[in-house]
Amino acid sequence: MSAGEVLSPLTQAIEDAIRDHHVLEVDYQDREGDALTLEVEPYGYRHNEAGHVVLWVFNEYNAKWEQLVVARIGAVRDTGRTFVPRADWGGR
Description:
- The protein has a single domain, classed as SH3 type barrels (Roll).
- 13% of the residues lie in helices and 48% in strands.
- It has one helix and five strands.
């Protein structure tokens, strides 16, 4: 991000949660088009093998690392809960 760049409210909320280690509630549409609400620990953005921008998260429900395609995120809410960053993050 360059100096002075204005972020969308969605992107700003995700960036704040990554920085502050806050758990997010995410409204997400999966590959099949099903609407899901997930509680996740957000870690960072990357490009996946298909070239999509993804948000790497740790899904608290199933206790595994997941990539959420950013274009499929409808909304996020900060739960106010914090998390201790996981040692196995490693920048994925």
